[in-house]
Structures are given as C-alpha cells and as structure tokens.
Design brief:
This protein is an alpha+beta fold. The protein folds into 4 domains: 75 residues, RNA polymerase II/Efflux pump adaptor protein, barrel-sandwich hybrid domain (OB fold (Dihydrolipoamide Acetyltransferase, E2P), Beta Barrel); 135 residues, OB fold (Dihydrolipoamide Acetyltransferase, E2P); 102 residues, Irregular (Dihydrolipoamide Transferase); 205 residues, Chloramphenicol Acetyltransferase. Strands 20, 23, 26, 27, 28, 29 and 30 form a 7-stranded mixed β-sheet that branches. Strands 15-10-12-13-17 form a 5-stranded antiparallel β-sheet, with no helix packed on it. A hairpin with a 6-residue loop joins strand 21 and strand 22. Helix 10 packs across helix 12. The protein is elongated and about 100 Å long. The protein binds oxidized coenzyme A. The site of oxidized coenzyme A has 21 residues, from strand 24, helix 11 and strand 27.
Length: 565
C-alpha cells in the first residue's frame, strides 16, 4: 500500500484557482474519477477528480484556498502497487496534466457569435441575430446534447446556460454569448454536436450589439463554460457521503425513490447557484436527464420552501420556536421504503397542528360521563329515527351540552387577541367538529349550534361529514369556530389528548363508551360510561374553570333533561 499525493492538474490557462468545494472527507473510500474538489477561476469552475482509487488519509487544502498547478490537494492510501499508480498522480515530476480534468478553452466560443452578429446587424437596422455555436470542446470531437435549458421566446442574458452537453468524460453547460430573445433552437436533446455546430439563434436589440462591447466580450469576458467530470464511475461530489452510505445496500432496486434524490448530480453552475442560495443539493430531487440537477430544480425547491414559510405557521425545514429540526433520516438504510408526497390538506393540517402545539400551553383533563340514561333515551328514539331516516349518535347531545357549558363559562368561548393585550369574547356559539376523511382531518363548523335542536344538529352533522368526506366543504364552512369537539367514539380508544384548534381555547375529545361497574346510590350497577378529555389553552383558561366546565358537561350528559331547564 502506498500513499499518493493528489495534486492540482494543468488548469487550462488559469494560474490560480479558488477551492470552492471539498467533496470528500478524511477516511472516505474513493474511486478513480470521483470528484475530490471543485475549483473556480474567474472564467469557469471545474471538478478535479481523483486519478486513483483508495482511502483519503489527509485533506491538505481548505475551502477558499487559492491553489495552482502542482499544489497538493489530498493524500490517498492506494491499495494498488505503486507501479500500477496512474500517471497523473503528480508527485512524480514527469507527469503530464491529467486528461480527466478537461478544461475547456472558452475564447473560441464567442468568436463565431461575434462575427455572425456583426454581419446580421449590418443588414437589419433594428435587431441583430446572434448565433451561438458549440465552442471548443476541450479535446472531445463530438458530444451529446443532454439538456435544453431554454425555449424559443425566452429572454436570455449573457452567461445563461443554453444547453448542456456531455462527452464520455465530462458534462458542460454552454452559456449564451450575448443577451436577447431566443428565436430558434437548432438542436434537440439526444443529438450529437461538434465544435462549430449552430445551437441557438438569439435576436438582439441593436443597442445591445455594440461592436466595442462585443470585442471585449470575445477577447476578455469569455463566457463561463461549466465543466464537470462525469467519469462514469464518479458520483456526484456533494452527494458522495450519502451515496457511500448506500453502498452497503444489498438490493439496488429497493430504494429507487431515495436514489432518485441522492444519486443525481449537478454541474458546477448549478452548484454555484446552490451555494449562493444556501441550498443543500442533496435535499433536491433531480428532474434532468440521468438524474442531473437542473437550475429549474433548484428554483422550484427554493420556491417551495419560500411558499411554505410564507404560509402562516407552516412547518419549515427549520422548525418553529428555534427548536432544532428533526434529523433527516435515510430510512432506506433499514429496509424497503416508499415515498409519497404529502397532500396539500395534509400539509395544512400538519402546519396548524404544529402552530397550535408550539404556541398554546396545553392542559388536558379527563372525566367519564355516565350516559346510561342518554343511551336509553337515544334507543327509544329509534322508531322515529327510522321514520325520519335520520340517525342520532351521542354527538348532537354532546354538542348541546358544550353550548350549555359555554354559556355558563364564557371563558371557553373566547380567543386571545394576537396583540397579546386583549381577550375576545364571542356572543355566538359556532362549534367545530373534527371529521376523519380519507384525505385527512377537516373541521367544519356548525353555526349557532346553541340555537339548534337535536334533530337539526344530527342532520347537520351528517351533512357536514358527507361534505367533508367528498371534499365539498368551502373555506367558509370551516371558519368561525368557537370551540371544537373531536369524537373518536365511533372509532375506539379510551381517551386521548386533543390539540386545541387555536385561536379557540378549548376542545373536547370524546372516546368510545363502555359499560363499566359503577356505584350508584351505594349499589354496584353496570353503567354506560363515556370518556371525555378537555384540552384547553392555559393562557386563557385556568384549571378551576376547566374543572367546572367539564363537570357541567358530565352532569348534563348524565341527565340531558337538565338542558331544557
Ligand atoms: N361511543 C360508542 N359509540 C359511538 C360513540 C361513542 N362515543 N359515538 C358514536 N358512536 C357510534 C354511533 O352511534 C354509530 O353507531 P351506529 O353505527 O350503531 O349508529 C357509530 O359509532 C358511528 O358513528 P359516527 O362516527 O358515524 O357518528 P358520530 O356522530 O359519532 O360522528 C363524525 C360523526 C363525523 C364526527 C365522525 O364520523 C368522525 O369523523 N370522527 C372522527 C373525528 C376525528 O378524527 N377526531 C380526531 C381528530 S385529532 O384530534
């Protein structure tokens, strides 16, 4: 085993370049062709791939360092014998510049554009046509066009990527050599192109085709041609650690979705943009050919994050209240997974839950209501239910009892004003009702529930639940609630701690009734007991109020006749 020093190769004209990214860490097992650092001159950025396979034993440079040809970048313990070491390990004086680091000469690129533009400008007074041709390909005769970055009609600026081409060694963005509007695209994805081939026609306003400026552009301000080694064994540098972690997976097919995300690669232009935006590329799913990350992917990702953050209270990658985010785990390490996007409704519910949970100091208290008499009464109504074709569950009675208790303890029918200085007392009683739908949790609101009888409430519960399940609720149907009831009684469970639907201050959780032995007037009897849990915002409601409020509901449900008194 020998230790080899990997040095900066011939930089294609640049005397010094800045190390902008280190793609490996000490101890990494790397393969020949794998990117180790990305460097950037004032004209281009490029990956420097390892000329050998081995284990990284030392990283000599830091991000931000200025390096020149021959400077040592890293040290690699090479398992192969030194005879077998590739020729471009540059601690041997006779070594030639590594061919794997293809550095594209750029000046030629602009020349055809300049002359064509000037010719056309002479014949057309107001506009000129700039032909963008395939530039010097840094040694490759022919390359495949793998991505079109523009469409006819697009406005482009000088330096904007027009197409991405790929040889068997590298991929590169070919940027526009001038600004204007794309009027024709002369190539298509999959076609093979060579130096000098016409790629794109750009119509330029006369003013923008300035002979002096153009000369400057051609001779000095050469366009940035982004070049990335894509030796077929090379993995995307920024994603390398994730990829390495996956190397242990036995079944390559078993985590396709995750692989789509992590095995993508990005050209230097995209990585540069990602750095400027502060985006971690491994968070982004690639849409480009062969898992290539396009600038569009980056923009879409940023848009999504911005929208989520703007969406009030939305959970962002960094969660609220300065709490560290839950770590991003690669679950595919532990077995098969399937990744499904969250629905909009799921996201909104999650955001609301998180907002309430983080903002509201919750207290939950529990009690059981003896609803033996209520159940007997409900049973006695069955013939009439059949006649009216309308079922009555315990829920409308519970809603009635809530309204009665809200009237007795109006503190539960309040909201804390957002200014933190006032309490808003509501004179109406709109009761929210949590509905479990296939698409997620929805909370339609029963207006003026205190003014409605049991039959009307039953009718409305059924209608609103139907509307919720068929996604027909309007936004107005879900607004204006004063207090929420969440009944899991038809589903099961002995108790739960519901989350307050802020800015409401209370929510009543209802669980499944069961027959329990209870002492009634000293006699042990089977009674139908309904578990209730009242969660409340402890900023608005104190425990005494909550105790009284819940006790009243328990009493009312034990004897519903009291509600008509
Ligand atoms: N104990 C025992 N049985 C109960 C019960 C209880 N507490 N509450 C209702 N039931 C019975 C009903 O009587 C009905 O029985 P039958 O089929 O014999 O008539 C059955 O359970 C189903 O009732 P239901 O759930 O359809 O009707 P509901 O009026 O009780 O509730 C609704 C309507 C829309 C609130 C409910 O269907 C629902 O979606 N609940 C889920 C709410 C939820 O997800 N909450 C959690 C939110 S997170 O905090």
């Amino acid at each position: 085993m020998t230790t080899e020093k990997i040095k900066v190769p011939d930089l294609g004209g640049a005397s010094q370049v800045e190390v902008i990214e280190i793609c490996i860490t000490k101890g990494d097992a790397i393969t020949e062709g794998q990117s180790i650092v990305v460097v950037e001159s004032d004209k281009a950025s490029m990956d420097i791939p390892s000329p050998i396979s081995g284990t990284v034993t030392a990283i000599i440079v830091n991000e931000g360092a200025e390096v020149a040809e021959g400077d040592v970048l890293i040290e690699v313990a090479n398992n192969a014998s030194s005879d077998a070491a590739p020729e471009n390990i540059t601690d041997k004086p006779s070594e030639e510049a590594p061919k794997k680091v293809a550095v594209v000469e750029q000046a030629n690129n602009a020349l055809p554009a300049k002359s064509k533009a000037a010719d056309t400008a002479a014949s057309e007074p107001d506009t000129a046509v700039l032909d963008v041709l395939v530039p010097d390909l840094g040694g490759a005769d022919q390359v495949e066009l793998i991505e079109l970055c523009v469409a006819v009609g697009d406005n482009v600026a000088e330096g904007d990527s027009l197409v991405v081409v790929e040889s068997d060694k590298a991929s590169m963005d070919i940027p526009s050599t001038g600004e204007g509007v794309v009027t024709a695209i002369e190539v298509e994805v999959g076609s093979t192109v060579a130096e000098g081939d016409l790629l794109v026609r750009i119509e330029q306003a006369k003013g923008s085709v300035n002979e002096t400026a153009m000369s400057e552009h051609v001779t000095e301000k050469t366009p940035e041609i982004q070049l990335q080694s894509i030796n077929k064994q090379a993995q995307p540098p920024v994603l390398e650690s994730a990829v390495t972690k996956h190397a242990n997976a036995n079944d390559q097919a078993h985590n396709q979705a995750a692989d789509k995300k992590i095995a993508s690669y990005a050209g230097p232009a995209v990585r540069k943009l990602a750095r400027e935006l502060g985006v971690e590329l491994s968070n982004i799913e690639a849409s480009g050919p062969r898992g290539r990350l396009a600038k569009e992917d980056l923009y879409n990702y940023v848009k999504r994050v911005v929208n989520r953050t703007a969406d009030a209270g939305s959970p962002s990658p960094v969660s609220g209240a300065a709490i560290a985010a839950i770590p991003d785990i690669d679950f595919s390490k532990f077995g098969d997974i399937d990744i499904q996007p969250m629905t909009k409704m799921h996201k909104v519910t999650a955001a609301n839950m998180q907002r309430s949970w983080l903002n509201v100091p919750h207290v939950t208290q529990f009690d059981d209501a003896d609803i033996t008499a209520l159940e007997a009464f409900r049973n006695s109504l069955k013939p009439e239910m059949a006649k009216r074709e309308l079922k009555i569950s315990p829920l409308p009675f519970i809603i009635k009892a809530i309204c009665y208790a809200l009237d007795a303890y109006p503190v539960f029918n309040s909201s804390l004003a957002a200014d933190g200085n006032n309490v808003v007392h509501k004179k109406y009683m709109h009761i929210g009702m949590a509905v479990d739908t296939p698409a997620g949790l929805l909370v339609p609101v029963i207006r003026d529930a205190n003014k409605k009888g049991i039959w009307d409430l039953s009718q409305e519960i059924i209608e609103l639940a139907e509307k919720a399940k068929s996604r027909k609720l309007s936004a107005a149907d879900m607004q204006g609630g004063c207090f929420t009831v969440s009944s899991l009684g038809g589903i099961g469970g002995r108790g739960f701690t519901p989350i307050v639907n802020a800015p409401e201050v209370g929510i009543l959780g209802v669980s499944k009734l069961s027959t329990q032995p209870q002492y009634v007037n000293g006699e042990l009897l089977p009674r139908k007991m309904l578990p209730l849990s009242l969660s409340y915002d402890h900023r608005a409601v104190n425990g005494g109020d909550a105790g009284r409020f819940l006790s009243l509901i328990v009493e009312l449900l034990a004897d519903v006749r009291r509600m008509v008194l």
